[in-house]
Amino acid sequence: MVGGVAFFLFVAGVLTYTVILYNGLVRLRNDNDRAWANIDVLLKQRHDEIPNLVETVKGYMQHEQQTLLAVTQARAASMNAASIGQKATADVMMTGALRGLFAIAENYPQLKANENFLKLQNRISELEERIADRREFFNDDVNTYNTRIGQIPEVFVASFMNLKRRELFRVSDDDRKRVEVNFTQTRQA
């Protein structure tokens, strides 16, 4: 009788612990999804500002069609991206295109004095900072998730749940390269 009760309590304890592990992994998975959704909202806000920015600079940057095309293509890639990996790649492409646009804008004093351009530049720069902050939160959540699903005993519950490792948001090789600024060529605006 005592052995039966002890066995029952042991099984109940194991089941309770398994449920706690399961719920913890579900919470972590949802935290990952929420963290990415927060980034996605900011990316959408940035995408919504890009057409306004391009229209503002078109009149000033008649000789910079390649730069405007790069921004437009990056926006299209961002809008068409479906998976987190595709969106992350498109985001890196968009960040680079915007960097190039803002760097070239330095050559156009009248553009830099345009109030709409300055507002849009500040708005997009603010969004870029918020996106960078959210990427950090996302990576923290993914790291915690990946650690937990690889540890014993969570690895068994994660395997049962078919949970897979998730990729961290990483900086591209282009973003690691040194930025070269050349002021030798001047333009007349």
The radius of gyration is: 24 Å
Helix count, per DSSP?
7
Order of helices and strands: HHHHHHH
**SSE-based structural type:** mainly alpha
List segments where confidence is low: pLDDT < 50 over at least 5 consecutive residues. Answer: 179-189
The pLDDT mean sits at 83
Which descriptor suits the 3D outline? Answer: rod-shaped
Distance between the termini: 94 Å
Condensed summary:
By secondary structure, the protein is mostly helical. It has seven helices and no strands. The radius of gyration is 24 Å and the shape is rod-shaped.
Descriptive report:
This protein is mainly alpha-helical and 189 residues long. It has 7 helices and no strands. The longest helix is centred in the N-terminal third of the chain and has 57 residues. It is rod-shaped and about 90 Å long. The termini are far apart. The C terminus is likely disordered.
Record the SSE blueprint.
Elements: H1 2-58, H2 65-80, H3 84-105, H4 109-113, H5 115-150, H6 154-160, H7 173-176
Helix pairs in contact: 1-2, 1-3, 1-5, 2-3
Main traits of this protein?
single chain; 189 residues; mainly alpha; 7 helices; 78% helix; rod-shaped; disordered C terminus
